[in-house]
Structures are given as C-alpha cells and as structure tokens.
Design brief:
Elements lengths: L1 H5 L2 E7 L5 E7 L3 E6 L13 H6 L2 E6 L18 H14 L6 E6 L1 H12 L4 E7 L10 H8 L6 H5 L2 H11 L1 E3 L6 E3 L2 H13 L25 E6 L9 H8 L3 E7 L6 H4 L1 H14 L1
Helix pairs in contact: 7-8
Length: 285
C-alpha cells in the first residue's frame, strides 16, 4: 500500500496537431503501459489498475478518448468514427515521446483500438491486454446493430438526459441476482457514480463510432504480440461467445480467462480478481 501511495499521479493535457485537446493521467516510472477505455467511459476506468502497475515499476498512462471525459468534443457528428478516434489516440501516443515498445491495455472500444494499433504499428507494441474487446458490429445484439447501422444526427434527447436518468440505468443494469446461485454482481458505488457521470459528460455523437467498425481492415493473424484476453461471462453489451472465437484467431495468445460473475466491465466490478491476472501476465513478458 505504501508503495502505491508514493507514486504521484500527474494530471495532464496536450494539444494535438489537429487542434484537439487530449486529457490523460500518468503515474509511475518504468516500462510504459497505455490504458484505453471503452465507449462512453473515461480514463477513470483504470482507477484500480493504474496505481497497481505504477507500484510494480511501470509507467502507466490513461487517456480520455475523442469525445469522452475532458478531451476534445468536436461539434459535428461526422467527426466521430473509429478512424478519427484512432487518429487522435495514435497522435497522442506520439506526443508522449516514448522510445520503447508499449504495453497496451484496452477495454471494449479501447480493446479494438489497441488491436488496431498493434496491427498497424507492430514494432511499437510489446504486448496486449484486451478486456471484453469490441472489434466487430456482429458482437452487438441485433437491435443495437440496427440502431448503429445509420448515422445518428439528431442526438438532442441524449444531450438533454439528466444525470439521474443515466444513474438509474447504470444501477439497474449493474445489479443481477441469479436464482439458485449465491452470486450477485453489483458495481461498487463509486464506480456507478463515475460511470453515470461519464455517460453524461461524453459527447452524444460518440454513438456514431460503432457503425464505422465495418470500414476497418483488421487482420488478426498479423497481431503477433503476446496477448492476454480477459472477459466477463455475463456481458450484456457484447456477445460473450465472441471472445473465445477471437482467442482462436490470435497467433500469440498467452492466456485467456473469463470471470463468470462479471458483465461488461470485469476490471471495475472485481478488480481484486482482475488485477492479479494482469500483473502475472506482465511479469511473464
């Protein structure tokens, strides 16, 4: 605990060449680990993991993606695509001026971006930790596939949704009781608060990003970095069956593990179970 407390967190922002501001945090010194959150989330996704990797002798970085958290939120819906989000992410990495290969930790959309970065920049990536990665529209329920198939121009209703409605949605979807089982899954109070806040402060146009996944040329067979794949077995956002299929396509999958009680955010619902898997993988590489 003392080692964790000694690692100071730096709150930073930088301006990219395209004029976009990127908000991020940095903690620790050592081999660089870049953490990438999912859709409608923020760098706070990694509040439990970041101090642990810093205490273990790594330099941890976590950013707010385009349209999320405190990073730039372009006004035009056309600005929100996977390619534009990736471009900001990639440009931000360059501003860090890190000469050694990176370890990427990505959740959901951040997992997809991490796979894409490793695919396009193989020499820049040392290893991957991907958590419930979102890399294909086919992972979504059919109703969401239909919704995201078309560009969302009028998002006024989302913009006007108050925090309490987002909080109600988060509370209801993060609680599960299963008959015949003693297991329940309730996200901690601070996580539910932050999740609802992240929904509220994100640009409503971010929901245009998923539909552009179809345009990506992502050859998984070319991602040869050592990879750890983790997912929640009760994911209601992305089909849990898609993760074992992904595992079969990754040439250098070191380990895969699913958390039966967790849903879409295993790194937040049970960090005490999740973090040891990450730390063991990091020690192994």
């Amino acid at each position: 605990m003392n080692a964790i407390l000694k690692q100071k967190i730096e709150y930073c922002s930088t301006m990219l060449a395209n004029g976009h501001k990127v908000n991020y945090v940095h903690q620790g010194q050592g081999d660089p680990i870049v953490m990438v959150h999912g859709l409608a989330a923020s760098l706070h996704d990694w509040d439990d993991l970041l101090p642990e990797v810093a205490a273990a002798g790594y330099g941890g970085y976590a950013l707010d993606l385009l349209g999320h958290g405190e990073s730039e939120k372009p006004a035009h819906p056309h600005d929100y695509s996977v390619e534009n989000t990736y471009a900001d992410f990639s440009a931000w990495i360059e501003t860090l001026k890190i000469n050694q290969p990176l370890i990427l930790v990505g959740h959901s959309l951040g997992g997809g971006l991490s796979l894409l970065y490793a695919h396009r920049n193989p020499s820049r990536v040392k290893a991957l930790v991907i958590v419930n990665p979102f890399y294909s529209m086919e992972q979504l329920p059919l109703i969401l596939q239909r919704i995201f198939h078309h560009q969302l121009i009028n998002t006024t209703l989302i913009d006007r949704t108050p925090y309490r409605i987002f909080r109600f949605f988060v509370d209801m979807t993060s609680f599960h009781t299963y008959i015949g089982s003693r297991e329940t899954h309730v996200l901690p109070e601070h996580v539910r608060y932050q999740t609802a806040l992240d929904y509220k402060r994100a640009s409503s146009s971010i929901y245009n990003i998923p539909r552009t996944l179809h345009h990506l040329d992502l050859d998984l067979s070319r991602i040869t970095q050592p990879t750890l794949l983790l997912w929640g077995g009760r994911d209601q956002t992305l089909a849990p069956s898609s993760f074992p299929r992904l595992a079969e396509q990754l040439p250098n999958l070191i380990k895969k593990h699913h958390f039966p009680v967790c849903g879409h955010v295993p790194h937040q619902c049970h960090p005490k179970d999740f973090n040891p898997h990450v730390m063991e993988f990091l020690r192994g590489i």
